[in-house]
């Protein structure tokens, strides 16, 4: 009989922090057939759309209580980012705890499970852990951070050392993107449990050489000098700050054949610029849906020649065929072909999206350190 | 001259994921005098309020472009959670990357810096790191996780072992709350650098004994059986799953005098229930703004007597005087006094808020393991 006073007190304590708002409607509701219903209360909005990752915006309909909703057709098992666009303003679903972090456009996310578990889902296999590390970057002149995945069993065996994949996020992401959105820690757990990937350390640094790049938002891409500074300082911070910290703190192998670099979008361009210009450091390079590629391949990759090809254990270049960046990636591949550089040419279904990149990283990681 | 095509391509790639929305207005804008301007586009809303942590909701005003705004008076340096309440619906600020994660009511957050750095800010001192660990909980029958802070220098010295603080979040929080919202890793970094706290490991488990408690939302508190299951299973998972994992993976001291437990709100009640009923395990107990306290102190703390007091190195009970839970906390303190149990009686300014708990944990941590 004491439950009600306790409830009242907690609700009062909660309400004082949250103002007098109505409870949010149930959203998203993933149905047994994998159709998803999204709901959003906006009684006075004139138009609300669902912007779901990989799809065209779709109109939602309002009920008498001012709640807009839409039910999709059954969706393929995946994790989808989404926003509600209310009278032109993209909004996060206030009913959904699952948020896709982003420095420019945070969104919500919904996981749709299938009959069998997907590679990016947490399953009942041994798990690695994810370390978040903080340091002061002399190159950037400000605080920076990075994440480190150590594979299952890392703690138990104090002798074994591991190869390292440096894995770079895209423009507008924060350093957590590959774990929170990409779920790369679960992807690696699953691949390792299935014997499909070698146990490895994955280092996920903050991917800006200067935070000015993120602070300016999309306008940063119209400032070519800023882009060049960003790329140059990123390489410097990675090679002179992050990698030495990792190698002093973790049992990381240091040979070039035990070090890989890969990334998505801006991080794809960074992987190419940092990797191909530092073949003494990396023998494995992956570039997923690269964006912000060099304007002039010859001047940005000055040392690249046929000899480079022999030093590369793998150069893996992927892009979705419906990605607006496909033609820039094809330009790059034509250049590499002309220079006699071998690469794996991977074109997949899909747009510029995490639906593509989770699959890319799984495919790429399985090839590494063989 | 290549900058514009690159920009156009990236914008197109971004837009396809985000639908045709307008850029969000600049928000929040922290001014040099520490006043903060909040802006939110909702052209057809009839009323929008700012719900800022620790304050009454305040009306915002709309301009001709449909952007609502408000400028506060200068705010004391702190980190404030906030929402926009648009026609009764609490919303996350879509312009702000900084989000306060929560399983029921995620919000935005804004940091207001002062002339000197605050204890919870990242400063240029040695940093500990934060480990995120995943495991399958037999007690809960589902996946669970916890975070571990290791102090600066933990990696460098492979021999030294450290005392452990188990630190529990509140109802509706996820396991990351003490680091993402509480910034306890930076608080410890700063206290340790100043010689005000002993280097320690901090373990921050998921604080539910059953996730049903979180899935039901605030309605869970009207189900007394569910609460009891939640508290009982939380203690079991902590003592039989999380603590053994921590002690097998980290250089953690195991003596009761080297183990503390503390938490906020629901986590305060859990600290009391788990700590005071397991004095063989913990000699230090802290309870900040406890919520969901036992209905019957005598039956929930059966073994508590004057002998208990001698075994407790510290029992630290705090609450803000404007917290709706102050009277429940005073009831508890009266009970402890009647039973002859000594405790530190800490009443501070403030409501049920992280503004109180960041200060609580700093004060409490400085007292530990002396």
Describe the structure.
- The structure is a homodimer of 370-residue chains.
- Chain A has 370 residues and is α/β, with parallel strands linked by helices.
- Helix content of chain A is 29%, strand content 25%.
- Chain A contains 10 helices and 18 strands.
- In chain A, strands 11-12-14-13-15-16-17-18 form an 8-stranded mixed beta sheet, with helices on both faces. In chain A, strands 3, 4, 7, 8, 9 and 10 form a 6-stranded antiparallel beta sheet that branches.
- In chain A, α3 packs parallel to α10.
- The longest helix of chain A is centred in the middle third of the chain and has 26 residues, at 224-249.
- At the A-B interface, α1, β7, β8, β11 and α5 of A face α1, β7, β8, β11 and α5 of B.
Short characterization:
The structure is a homodimer of 370-residue chains. Chain A is an alpha/beta fold and 370 residues long.
User: Order of strands across the biggest sheet of chain A?
Assistant: 11-12-14-13-15-16-17-18
- Estimate the helix proportion of chain A, in percent: 25-40%
Number of helices of chain A: 10
Strand content of chain A: 25-35%
Q: Flag low-confidence runs of chain A.
A: 1-5, 15-19
* Rg measurement of chain A, Å: 22 Å
Oligomeric state of this protein: homodimer
Average of the residue pLDDT scores of chain A = 93
Shape of chain A: globular
N→C terminal distance of chain A: 65 Å
Q: Main sheet of chain A, how many strands, which sense, barrel?
A: 8 strands, mixed
The secondary-structure element order of chain A is HEEEEEEEEEEEEEHHEHHEHEHHEHEH
Total strands of chain A: the figure is 18
The structural class of chain A is alpha/beta
Largest interface, chains and sizes: A-B, 93 and 94 residues
């Amino acid at each position: 009989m004491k439950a009600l006073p306790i409830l009242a007190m907690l609700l009062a304590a909660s309400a004082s922090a949250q103002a007098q708002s109505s409870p949010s409607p149930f959203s998203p509701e993933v149905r047994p057939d994998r159709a998803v219903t999204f709901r959003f209360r906006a009684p006075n909005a004139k138009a609300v759309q669902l912007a779901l990752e990989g799809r065209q915006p779709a109109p939602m309909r309002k009920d008498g209580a001012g709640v807009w909703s839409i039910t999709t057709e059954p969706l393929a098992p995946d994790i989808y980012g989404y926003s509600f666009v209310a009278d032109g303003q993209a909004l996060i679903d206030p009913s959904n705890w699952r948020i896709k972090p982003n420095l420019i456009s945070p969104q919500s996310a919904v996981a749709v499970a299938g009959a069998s578990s997907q590679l990016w889902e947490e399953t009942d296999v041994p798990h690695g852990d994810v370390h978040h590390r903080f340091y002061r970057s002399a190159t950037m002149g400000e605080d920076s951070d990075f994440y480190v995945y150590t594979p299952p069993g890392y703690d138990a065996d104090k002798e074994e050392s591991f190869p390292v994949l440096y894995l770079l996020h895209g423009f507008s992401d924060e350093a957590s993107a590959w774990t929170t959105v990409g779920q790369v820690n679960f992807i690696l757990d699953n691949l390792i449990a299935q014997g499909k990937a070698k146990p490895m350390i994955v280092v996920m640094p903050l991917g800006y050489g200067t935070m000015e790049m993120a602070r300016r938002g999309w306008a940063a891409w119209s400032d070519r000098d800023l882009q060049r500074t960003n790329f140059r300082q990123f390489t410097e911070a990675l090679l002179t700050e992050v990698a030495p910290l990792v190698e002093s703190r973790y049992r990381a192998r240091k040979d070039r054949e035990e070090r890989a670099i890969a990334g998505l979008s801006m991080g794809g361009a960074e992987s190419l610029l940092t990797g191909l210009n530092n073949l003494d450091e990396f023998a494995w390079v992956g570039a997923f849906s690269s964006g912000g590629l060099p304007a002039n391949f010859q001047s940005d990759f000055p040392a690249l020649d046929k000899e480079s090809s022999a030093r590369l254990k793998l150069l893996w270049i992927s892009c979705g065929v419906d990605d607006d960046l496909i033609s820039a990636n094809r330009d790059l591949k034509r250049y590499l072909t002309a220079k006699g550089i071998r690469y794996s040419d991977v074109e997949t279904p899909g747009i510029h999206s995490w639906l593509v990149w989770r699959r890319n990283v799984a495919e790429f990681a399985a090839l590494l350190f063989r």
